[in-house]
């Protein structure tokens, strides 16, 4: 089936939103933790976190205009810090609940039964339940002219993760932490590793790596 | 384990790259198809495609500086069009092979044994093997000041997808198309749906949806 621009534009708006949101493939599910100047906390689920660089360690994410994440944006601009907390299977429904439209005076931590967690010297709240927590400092913010979405870029200042998940070569086995993936607006998925693949070079055959990063033979890729 | 900014900065560079690239969670794996003014084709795997909006339908992705994707950037700027092709399990190793550093005169289609596919009136090549193909027109390009990465924003003009994967409510069941997810630099994963969750509202319990989008009871979420 080939959907052209016209047939997409003619879709009922909610159907189009589900359709277009499905096209970006499997996405990360993360909770953005913030607080305002009076330490009132806020939590918001996003599926747009992306890698921007390792040196310095940078990440970006998108906040949609006029959405519930508006409180998140205002808190980040006021405090210049936030946390990114990977969503795991264990608290998936709670994480999804944070997308509801709560008043500014209400904390999604309370409403979704998630636990704020603090680290000395960093004002934004982490999600205790998350197995992969990042402390972020705001580096750049811009409103994209094309549709008024907000691009937030931050530098990673701390990474809190169980040591057992960090492989000797630096790769983090996020699958072993039961971190979920999201597709579309509302579909959540667990994963099963097919394999790690060797660094690609011209005229050299790719070979599989073990989870730890060592070369080995593995029939699935022979 | 709490890795602070200093311990991250002190990591061996390749280890740090693997570590930081793991922090953005499960990512989409997509092949960007382009051609130059002389119809020489190019193909490059990226893991940074993200949703920007449904009306108009927009997507962004990141090109790293001085990387093999440089040919991709030059072609997009020259022709103002490109394709996004979701990577499926069946041609995963070929897709990974496109990350090798080929000369400009070499096409990754040939080198990775993937088939270019054309649609009348659109110059950029699709990947025939991909079950989810998008025709994109360049809308905005900017070099991010923070680390000289390139942000490419495009509008979705065509969506080529098997009709059986499009649910009545617009959601596309990308899992049924065997589309893979990537974590870190080199780990590929297949998925298993936990469930679709209802639109979250304050003071209303979330309930599961069927894959088709209808409400139902499902014990995993009771």
Automatic annotation (TrEMBL), chains A, B:
Pfam family, one: Flavin_Reduct
Domain Flavin reductase like: 25-165
Cofactor: FMN
Superkingdom, natural source: Bacteria
Signal sequence, renumbered to the chain: none
The entry's keywords: Flavoprotein, FMN
Family as reported in the entry's similarity comment: Belongs to the flavoredoxin family.
Protein's recorded name: Flavin reductase
């Amino acid at each position: 089936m080939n959907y052209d621009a016209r047939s997409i534009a003619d879709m009922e708006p909610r159907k189009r939103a589900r359709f277009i949101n499905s096209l970006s493939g499997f996405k990360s599910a993360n909770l953005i933790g913030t607080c305002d100047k009076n330490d009132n906390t806020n939590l918001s689920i996003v599926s747009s976190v992306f890698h921007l660089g390792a040196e310095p360690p940078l990440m970006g994410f998108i906040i949609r205009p006029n959405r519930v994440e508006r409180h998140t944006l205002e808190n980040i601009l006021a405090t210049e810090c936030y946390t990114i907390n990977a969503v795991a299977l264990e608290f998936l429904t709670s994480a999804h609940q944070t997308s509801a439209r709560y008043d500014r005076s209400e904390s999604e931590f309370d409403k979704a039964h998630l636990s704020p967690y603090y680290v000395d010297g960093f004002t934004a709240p982490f999600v205790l339940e998350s197995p992969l927590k990042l402390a972020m400092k705001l580096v750049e913010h811009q409103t994209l002219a094309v549709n008024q979405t907000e691009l937030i870029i931050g530098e990673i200042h701390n990474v809190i993760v169980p040591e057992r998940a960090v492989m000797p070569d630096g790769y983090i086995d996020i699958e072993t932490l039961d971190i979920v993936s999201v597709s579309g607006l509302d579909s959540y998925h667990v994963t099963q590793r097919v394999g790690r693949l060797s660094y690609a070079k011209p005229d050299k055959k790719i070979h599989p790596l073990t989870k730890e990063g060592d070369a080995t033979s593995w029939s699935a890729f022979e």
